[in-house]
Amino acid sequence: MSASQSAVRSRAEAVKVSRTFDWLICFTLFFVILGGYHVHFMLTGGDWDFWTDWKDRRLWVTVLPIVGITFPAAVQSIFWWRYRLPFGAVLSVLGLLFGEWVNRYLNFWGWTYFPVNFVFPSNFMPGAIVLDVILMLSNSMVLTAVLGGLAYGLLFYPGNWPIIAPLHVPVEYNGMMMTLADLQGYHYVRTGTPEYIRMVEKGTLRTFGKDVAPVSAFFSGFVSIIIYFLWHFFGKWFGKTNFVQST
Amino acid sequence: MKLIKDKVAKLSFVALLVTVTAAMFYTPTASAHGEKSQAAFMRMRTIHWFDLNWSKEELKVNDTMTISGKFHVFAGWPETVDKPEISFLNIGIPGPVFIRAGSWIGGQLVPRSVSLELGETYEFKVLLKARRPGDWHVHTMMNVKGGGPIIGPGKWVTITGSMGQFTNPITTLTGETIDLETYNLSNTYFWHAFWYALGLAWLAYWARKPMFVPRLIAVDSGKADSLISPTDRKVALAFAVGSIAIVAMSMSSTNQQYPVTTPLQAGLLRGMKSIEMPAPTVAVKVDDATYRVPGRAMQMTLTVTNNGDSAVRLGEFNTAGVRFLDAKVTEDTTGYPDDLLAEEGLTVSDNSPLAPGQTRTIQVTASDAAWEVYRLADLIYDPDSRFAGLLFFYDEAGNRQMVMVDSSLIPSFI
User: Fold this and answer.
1) Cα–Cα–Cα angle for B128, B134, B137, rounded to 5 degrees
2) Chain A partners of B233 at a C-beta cutoff of 8 Å?
3) Judged by CB atoms within 8 Å, which residues 215-244 of A form the interface with B?
4) Are B329 and B387 found together in one domain?
5) Domain co-membership, B152 together with B232
6) Domain for residue A5, yes or no?
């Protein structure tokens, strides 16, 4: 068979090869994205995602969407502009959550015995779905960045509230009031993570009283817009094939 | 020659495989906490733990024990370590094998970070509840922001039973009693599974049609718009609107289910109550101090003046948690860890009772393998080669008084 001849002999065979190729790519990409996104997220989101006593109304709400919109933006740009496939953000978040759950279950619980109700990961799926849909319907990077980025920040806290609210029920403990999440952090000893490392409820955003979470979410959304642009361009740059030698 | 080369290559490969396999399958239990690796000057010149008591050496899952005692915050805190203005009373254990059911400094609960004063002595207590069976080295520990974990003495404690029996009942301010070990677990699994399934459904919707090759060809040939059908748009809209609606409804129902929630509690606790230590009536001046490397012994020349009204003798030198005792003056009755106790490790040139008003210059030698085992001898390689420790003097009635010593240490290699 010469180089110019086709590797397939019929249309049916071409379709079959194409579908096999689809699954191979999907399977491989899932784990490649999982690895990259997971490492990035552990390094940038880290403790805010590891422990319930870091999941506060200010910094957790602010930081995690900002560092979490990165890979979805990059993968979206490759999948959308090259293939018109609108699932880049969801695929990224599926990979991240799969990796995080494996990590939390096998490492945090399986090896070091921290209870899972203390170390579960944050949920990014509502924002990812909305991000994908906005890109698909608008076919515009700018609109996706502005509307999708904002939505990504805004949906994060309410999307996680049903999971963390039970842990924010107050408890009186030896004469002090704390939440159940605080108590988890106190009870389950972390030798290398002393209490002062915890970056929660810090800042000067006191004017809004108890309604600080929506303000933090808006701020997170605004920054997510900028980060979306940046990582969308990273994705475009990485998605180029200029470096592949043509034969 | 080639045959030999090939054989060597093959054998080397086999050896490599065996080594890698052995390394993978040899996983001994890690039970130390790096206490011996921490710079000696940090252990000797920061927090001095004393009068420690581990209430139990063996207990069952769900049983409790306490570690209590005192710690002195050394006034000559090293310049290279941040001052303990933000500190946290921790416990050095390999993960949550116990839960920390309570910890107190000066009688105040300290679930958060505290501010400590140099030169003060504090009483502390940590209440632990056994969770995971095994033999665990349980250390006292103080984390200092900018200084790292300053680990204190450790003792082996055995937990028996089964971790499956462990419970952690807590009554909330809303009157509900829950088991914190498993609380909210099914709710967490449910919501994560639900959203993951929704994400998979979105992916499956697109994956049921050909993906990469035909779509790339279509995009490259300018037919990108034909790849998204009106149905696709409707389905996408349903996913987005549905997701937002689910978020709104689940948040609303959660707020109804948990009407009382509070923010995480944070903030530094100041004003820790220290112990009112009586002013020592014994004055000690360190004339010189040397560490003799071959003999694993530290020798101090001290000028001691007794300003009190009863005769005193030197009974103990305590540094970095290692206790050197003069057996003729005092003995340990608390079950202090053997490896940290030199029961006859303190030799004094003249330890006859020092009468009130008297001054005497004495040679004090603290010798024990602990200098080497606990790598305190490494002090001579530290950036701040000074030692510090606590001297305990006893009068005839058995009353004890504590005197802090701090001086340069000159190593002797011959």
Assistant:
1) 60
2) 136-137
3) none
4) yes
5) no
6) no
Q: What's the CATH code of the domain at A128?
A: 1.20.1450.10
Residue with tokens 């602990």: B370
Residue finishing a domain among B152, B174, B196: B174
Residues of A in contact with B219 (CB under 8 A): 81-84
Mutate to test the interface with A, among B264, B268, B269, B270 (most CBs of A within 10 A): B264
Residue A102 structural domain: 13-237
> Do both B318 and B231 map to the same domain?
no
Is B97 contained in some domain?
yes
* A100-144 pLDDT per residue, tens: 999 999 999 999 999 999 999 999 999 999 999 999 999 999 999
> Parallel, antiparallel, or unpaired: how do β-strands A176-179 and B121-130 relate?
unpaired
Per the structure block, which two tokens stand in for A176?
A: 């002090």
Domain membership flag for residue B30: no
**What is the tally of structural domains in chain A?**
1
**Both B400 and B287 in a single domain?**
yes
Q: Chain B window 127-156: which residues touch A at a Cβ cutoff of 8 Å?
A: 131-132, 141, 143, 145, 149
Query: Which residues does chain A have within 8 Å of residue B170's beta carbon, measured at their own beta carbons?
Result: 171, 173, 180, 183
Beta-carbon separation of B113 and A171 below 8 A: no
Q: Which residues on neighbouring strands pair with residue B137, listed in sequence order? A: B156
H/E run at residue A171 = strand A170-173
Q: Is there a contact between B346 and B316 (Cβ–Cβ < 8 Å)?
A: yes
CATH of the domain at B290: 2.60.40.1580
Residue A182 and residue B227: Cβ atoms within 8 Å? Answer: no
- Chain B 174-233, residues with CB within 8 Å of chain A CB atoms: 174, 176, 178, 180-185, 187-188, 191-192, 195-196, 198-200, 202-203, 206-207, 210-216, 218-219, 224, 227-228, 232-233
Q: What are B320's strand-pairing partners?
A: none
| Residue that finishes a domain, picked among B121, B145, B174 | B174
**Which residues in A lie closer than 8 A to residue B267 (C-beta atoms)?**
201
Q: Residue B68 pairs with which residues in a beta bridge?
A: B53, B125
Give the residue numbers spanning the domain of B159: 40-174
Per-residue pLDDT tens digits of chain B, which is 414 residues long: 677 888 888 888 888 888 888 877 776 665 566 777 778 888 888 999 999 999 999 999 999 999 999 999 999 898 888 999 999 999 999 999 999 999 999 999 999 999 999 999 999 999 999 999 999 999 999 999 998 899 999 999 999 999 999 999 999 999 999 999 999 999 999 999 999 999 999 999 999 999 999 999 999 999 998 999 999 999 999 999 999 999 999 999 999 999 999 999 988 999 899 998 888 899 999 999 988 877 788 899 999 999 999 999 999 999 999 999 999 999 999 999 998 999 999 999 999 999 999 999 999 999 888 888 888 877 777 777 788 999 999 999 989 999 999 998 888 777
Residue B379 lies in a domain: yes
Closest CA to B151 of B34, B322, B31: B34
Question: How far apart are the C-alpha atoms of B213 and A1, rounded to whole Å?
Answer: 22
ipTM of predicted complex? 0.94
Chain position carrying tokens 């012994």: B297
